[in-house]
Write a structure and sequence with these properties.
9 strands, about 40% helix, nine-stranded mixed sheet, Rossmann fold
């Protein structure tokens, strides 16, 4: 587990106050510990990545194919066909705002599950009954945005989630690992675009997309801010309410609980900005579990001098985005992507 930075800092300040350490030595000790904290994060990130099974990291993808372009109100859509994994093609949609001037902030958009396998990347354009579409938001704010169809969804729905999960398990792979791999390759492409500002990179998702968002942010430090809705809670609390059945089979990574908890995965995002908004009446996110993660992460951000960069909240709603949640997300986009 990562080095207990909070305890070290407390001990350093206490020692300085007692005259054991000079103020200069205390600062030096904190700087050394900051370095150790970063090294431990790197080690934990490597361990987390190793749990995702055999990934085609050695595969050299072919350039994507541009299938067509469509002009919409305030943005252009590019429909792309990607070769990410050497196993099956990955359809994607790139939203290019008309108002881009210079380099643009970037968003990797991860779609939800809901058991609606016919819906994938098109969620970006059409939204859900529980969440209005984000395409107009990203277009208005000038955010270059990419969404892909995940395994078993959208144009990749030919094979069922259960069959895909079982086959991959036989092969030494994990479905979630392959999902995340494709998203990382999508991020490679997004940041390769001439319009992209690699210093302003967000990842957003609702439900399954939210789970992807905080895993991706933990694993990939190119992501500068994480925005997730309605899918973060402590794993133990989820088991206590007997709702493992609530999540799709993709969610379950072998041996994960031997090494990580939700909070220690999310610790790998610290100190990068992270907003997570969840429903108090959502069976997928038991509120005690949300509070447990929040109470662990907030002090870490505070010690890093980044308290305002962590916002984990509960709202009186089920599995949906409320208007006040949307307002928080809009403000977060402005602060950490558009204006940063």
């Amino acid at each position: 587990m990562p080095y207990p930075r909070r305890k070290f800092l407390q001990q350093s300040f206490a020692a300085s106050a007692a005259g054991i350490l000079s103020p200069l030595n205390a600062v030096t000790a904190m700087e050394q510990n900051e370095s150790k904290f970063n090294l431990d994060q790197k080690s934990q990130r490597k361990k987390l990545f190793s749990l995702l099974g055999d990934l085609p990291t050695g595969y050299s993808p072919q350039p994507p194919k541009l299938l067509k372009k469509e002009q919409h109100d305030g943005y252009t859509l590019e429909y792309l066909d990607f070769d990410f994994n050497g196993m099956e093609r990955v359809p994607g949609t790139l939203l290019v705002p008309d108002n881009i001037k210079g380099k643009a902030p970037c968003m990797l958009y991860c779609h939800a599950h809901f058991g609606t396998y016919n819906i994938g990347k098109d969620e970006l354009l059409n939204g859900r009954s529980v969440m209005p579409a984000y395409a107009p938001v990203y277009a208005q704010k000038g955010i270059l945005t990419l969404a892909i169809d995940s395994w078993c969804f959208g144009e990749r729905k030919a094979n069922t989630e259960m069959d895909t999960f079982k086959k991959m398990l036989w092969e030494g792979r994990t479905l979630f690992g392959m999902m995340l791999f494709d998203e990382m390759k999508a991020l490679d492409y997004l940041l390769s675009r001439s319009e992209a500002d690699a210093s302003r990179v967000g990842v957003f998702g609702l439900s399954m997309g939210a789970t992807k968002a905080w895993w991706l942010s933990a694993l990939d430090t190119r992501i500068t801010t994480c925005l997730d809705l309605c899918c973060m809670t402590d794993f133990d609390e989820l088991m206590k309410v007997n709702n493992l059945k609530g999540h799709g089979i993709y969610y379950y990574v072998p041996s994960l609980l031997k090494h990580f908890e939700t909070k220690t995965i999310n610790e790998l995002i610290v100190p990068r900005p992270h907003v997570s908004l969840n429903g108090r009446f959502d069976d997928l996110t038991p509120p005690k579990g949300v509070e447990k993660v929040r109470d662990y992460l907030v002090p870490l951000y505070a010690k890093a001098g980044k308290l305002e960069d962590c916002r984990i909240e509960l709202f009186d709603c089920p599995h949906e985005e409320l208007p006040q949640m949307r307002q928080i997300i809009l403000g977060w986009l402005d602060k950490y992507l558009v204006k940063s």
